[in-house]
Amino acid sequence: MRAEVRRGGDPAAGRVALLFGSEKTGLSNEEMSHCHWLLTIPMHECEGGRHLSMNLGQAVAVCLYELVLGEAEGAAGAQGRAFEPADAALLERMTALLREVLEETEYTRRHAANSDPAQVRRLVRRMGVDAMDAPVWTGILRQIVWKLRGGPEE
């Protein structure tokens, strides 16, 4: 068993949410698809090929420690952040538009295995789009949908 922690939220607003699943089942794929980061706490292998594990309380303590440590290092190090991640609402709009493009181009029909909504959402999150680029991507996707739906020629 390994301890897993998923981190998500709105880092651009200075808020972060840590999302933990149960010790027995963890988080569902749908729940994970809303997260920005996935963190696995490394554990050493012990005799017999088994992995040591930690309980949920220990995993929470490790993650909170690292979060506080990271905040302290960030405050001491840099005046500002060069990379400001896009917020969750904008990423959801991008995901919805990308799904529209996939539907309009019939990609979802031809490649159903790659078109699951949770999988598309995870794909968008892994892109690591920042707050400045997200509106540009949203505009591009909107334009593609408009054109695919028969927008007039210019």
Provide a compact summary of the structure.
The protein is mostly helical. 47% of the residues lie in helices and 10% in strands.
Number of strands: 3
Widest β-sheet, arrangement of strands:
2-1-3
Low-confidence stretches: 1-12, 77-81
Give the domain tally.
2
Topology pattern, helix = H, strand = E: EEHEHHHHH
Q: How big is the Rg?
A: 19 Å
* Helix content estimate: 40-55%
Coarse morphology:
elongated
Number of helices: 6
Q: How many angstroms separate the termini?
A: 59 Å
Strand content: 5-15%
What is the residue-mean pLDDT, rounded to a whole number? 79
Q: What composes the largest sheet?
A: 3 strands, antiparallel
Query: What structural class results from the helix and strand content?
Result: mainly alpha
User: Quaternary arrangement of the chains shown?
Assistant: single chain
Structure notes:
The protein is mainly alpha-helical and 154 residues long. It has 2 domains: 4-77, no CATH class; 88-148, no CATH class. 47% of the residues lie in helices and 10% in strands. Helix 3 (88-104) packs across helix 5.
Q: In terms of topology, how is this protein built?
A:
Blueprint (H helix, E strand, L loop, with lengths): L3 E7 L4 E5 L9 H4 L4 E4 L15 H22 L10 H17 L2 H4 L6 H10 L7 H15 L6
Antiparallel strand pairs: 1-2, 1-3
Helix pairs in contact: 3-5, 3-6
